[in-house]
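Predict structure. Chain length: 198.
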Amino acid sequence: MVSDVSLDVEREQAGTFRVLLHTCCAPCSIYCLDKLEADGYSPTPFFYNPNIHPYKEFERRLDALKLYLVTRELDPIVDDEYDLDLFLERAVGSGSDRCAACYELRLTRTAKEAANKGFGRFTTTLLVSPYQNHDLIVETAQRAASDYGVEFLYIDFRPGFREGQAKARELGLYRQPYCGCIYSEDERYNPKRRTTGR
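Prediction complete.
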């Protein structure tokens, strides 16, 4: 049986580069997948998002992603353990640094998965959102890549954000109204939070 690492080498020699794509949801994956494939990469989506709250929202996003990936004939790697305790352990009490804790949790896990599955590189759909801390994502991903001996593939996907969202609407994909965690849900729906910024 040929190892994943050997397959990676063979595909690179043939001009197709495997990349593990940390994927937060279906809408954000659309442009990222289009861009990676147009650039000659062979992406494998990886769903690891223990930050998403509540569990029904986690299921809804995962189901929408799986439905979309069927249309692209892509098989994702899914970690559906929903380790909410781990996310809360990292995020609770971190105040304004909670996004940093979340990025670190998800991108470190992605780098580890890339190393374990023989991917030479990884990237993330978080880089498509104009609402995320882009520079912090890059810094965190680079550190995780170094820790696990893989490459972080940096691509600024933000120019395709609106294009991807428009395609998601056309396809009737579920488009979530908040980032994912309990804090972003609060900021989105709590009228006191929206008016006072507390």
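Summary: The chain has a mean pLDDT of 87.
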